[in-house]
Amino acid sequence: MSVKSYNVLFLCTGNSARSILAEAILNQLGAGRFKAYSAGSQPKGEVHPYALELLRSLNHDTSFARSKSWEEFAGADAPKMDFVFTVCDSAAAESCPVWPGHPMTAHWGIPDPAAAEGTEAEKHFAFADAYRMLNNRIAIFTNLPLGSLDNLPLQRRLQEIGRSMPKAG
Question: Active site residue: 8, 88, 114, 138, which one?
Fold first, then answer.
């Protein structure tokens, strides 16, 4: 019996930090059950170097990492998404494209580590903290019994995951 694979798109405005981290985490935790993608409404054009450094230090493959527009995923030839999650507040407030297949959506807002101020150590901590929050939420998501939940209870659970705020590390 084959296991269904789900396509998941993480959206942020710049697609340079949070959505890239989420894509890497889900592709590792999802172990073939999920295929993650990321995009931005106004992509920066490059991935934040601290995001790449953190992912590499945690043994994530970063060959996928590039800042790209969400328009890549709105066309007829794009992969059909099962889930679309916004991970920043500004992207959640924007008018998103209509996604082919009408995927389930939820907002999983995380503070922007790229906006962190302070010492280099404090900036690196902001990326580690964003990673930790995303990792916790994605771990909960990957353990949901997706095949046995009806749409309404599943939508409720996805929104609850976005409201969960793990304690600071």
Answer: 88
User: Residue 106: beta bridge partners?
Assistant: 85
pLDDT along the chain (169 residues), means of 10: 84 95 97 93 95 97 95 88 88 63 89 95 97 96 85 86 68
Report, at the CATH architecture level, how domain 6-163 is classified: 3-Layer(aba) Sandwich (3.40)
| Nearest residue to 19 (alpha-carbon basis) of 81, 66, 74, 75 | 66
Q: Could you confirm whether 50 is annotated as catalytic?
A: no
| Domain ranges (residues) in the chain | 6-163
Give the angle subtended at the CA of 114 by the CAs of 110 and 115, to the nearest 5°: 85
Catalytic-residue membership of 93: no
Pairing, β 6-12 against β 104-107 = unpaired
DSSP H helical ranges for the chain: 18-29, 49-57, 89-93, 120-142, 151-163
Structure tokens at 35: 């295929």
